[in-house]
Write a structure and sequence with these properties.
Blueprint: H1 15-37, H2 54-57, E1 62-64, H3 65-86, H4 93-115, E2 122-124, H5 125-151, H6 162-186, H7 219-235, H8 238-265
Antiparallel strand pairs: 1-2
Helix pairs in contact: 1-8, 3-4, 3-5, 4-5, 4-6, 6-7, 7-8
Length: 281
């Protein structure tokens, strides 16, 4: 029987890829629902909001915000860079585009961590570990799945989405960077100092303004989703779409929790500002 989905490669013969597709989707979707229920991954404004008993909280290991984010993004960046240097597949444009996009995405994140973001909060190590594993394994699996489409000779999807994917990827990372920059301008210069990096002082936070912040509180998440749509279109593998679906669930939950947090902290928070999608959600 022919593979019925005309915009996706047939699944490669790999138990690992199939398993990772299920794990990535279910893990991210569960994290999204957990955010809605108030069980947050402890970073950014939620870094010390937890349902754990006080005895367990005191035993947690915390990283500074900057070190935590570097820890999260560096392995995925190195995985993408390694794929380009040691497994280039120079004769396959889709593989090169995907590996390059993933490498550029995480390089951008590392540069933002170093030169753009200002931190007044930290990150719990037990939250950092699942995030770093998710990014690293997603990058490795996405590239490995693309490798299998070449080595197993899988037929190209009848509908080619890789060039629209490039446009969406560039739009996504550009919009994400712009709104990260706007967020950084809201924070005081002292927010990035070592002493304040552990303070989690809510007074450092302000209601974001400018760009799509006038319509949604998490436009950076919206553009991150657009970038992951770009990855999926470039790749056109079942794994890429599974990871995209899980990412949408997670960022939808995280944005909902973020809007709820702003509503709780600011009495003048504008009610017309949605969580993620302008005028809708």
């Amino acid at each position: 029987m022919a593979w019925p989905i005309i915009f996706v490669f047939p699944p490669p013969a790999s138990v690992f890829v199939i398993a990772m597709s299920v794990i990535s989707f279910t893990g991210l979707a569960y994290s999204g629902f957990s955010e809605v229920r108030g069980n947050h991954l402890q970073y950014s404004k939620f870094w010390k909001i937890t349902n754990k008993p006080a005895s367990q909280k005191s035993k947690q290991i915390y990283l500074s915000g900057r070190r935590g984010m570097q820890f999260i993004y560096a392995p995925a960046f190195l995985a993408g860079l390694t794929s380009l240097v040691f497994f280039p597949h120079n004769d396959d444009i889709r593989y090169l585009l995907l590996s390059s996009a993933l490498t550029l995405h995480f390089l951008k994140r590392l540069l933002e961590v170093q030169f753009v973001h200002k931190y007044s909060s930290g990150m719990a190590l037990d939250s950092a570990i699942p995030i770093v594993l998710s990014y690293f394994m997603a990058t490795v699996t996405a590239i490995y799945t693309q490798h299998l489409t070449i080595t197993q000779g899988l037929p190209e999807p009848p509908i080619d989405l890789k060039y629209p994917g490039i446009v969406l990827f560039l739009l996504g990372i550009t919009g994400n960077f712009y709104h990260h920059y706007l967020l950084s301008q809201l924070r005081s210069s002292s927010s990035s100092s070592p002493s304040s990096s552990q303070s989690n002082n809510d007074e450092d936070y302000k209601i974001p303004k400018g760009g799509l912040f006038e319509l949604v509180i998490c436009p950076h998440y919206l553009f991150e989703i657009i970038a992951f749509v770009g990855f999926s279109f470039i790749s056109q593998t079942l794994y890429a779409f599974a990871f995209l679906a899980g990412t949408v669930f997670y960022l939808t939950g995280r944005s909902y929790a973020t809007r709820r947090w702003y509503l709780s902290k600011f009495k003048n928070f504008p009610q017309n500002v949605k969580a993620l999608i302008p005028y809708v959600y």
